[in-house]
Write a structure and sequence with these properties.
With 76 residues, this protein is mainly alpha-helical. It is built from three helices and two strands. The chain is flat and about 55 Å long. Strands 1-2 form a two-stranded antiparallel sheet. The longest helix is centred in the first third of the chain and has 25 residues. Helix content is 47%, strand content 8%. It folds into two domains: 31 residues; 38 residues, no CATH class.
């Protein structure tokens, strides 16, 4: 029989709280209004940098957003 101490009870409560916060953060992210202003941008291969590093380098082109802002908070 395992006896639960206040120390283990506190750890379980913190773990449960963290899990709930992570779930809520994901929900808030997926339902954020930012998706009204932004679109998914393509990845673009950087051939010179890829050759220099001898690896594939892809750039995420956020400058191609229709709001013309690197930070979406600038769109509002």
């Amino acid at each position: 029989m395992q006896v639960q101490t206040s120390r283990t009870a506190g750890a379980e409560t913190r773990a449960e709280t963290k899990k709930a916060q992570q779930t809520d953060y994901l929900r808030l992210t997926l339902t954020a209004r930012v998706y009204d202003a932004a679109r998914e941008t393509e990845l673009e291969r950087a051939p010179n940098l890829s050759a220099r590093l001898r690896n594939t380098v892809l750039l995420k082109r956020e400058d191609n957003q229709p709001v013309f802002s690197f930070k979406l908070r600038g769109a509002y």
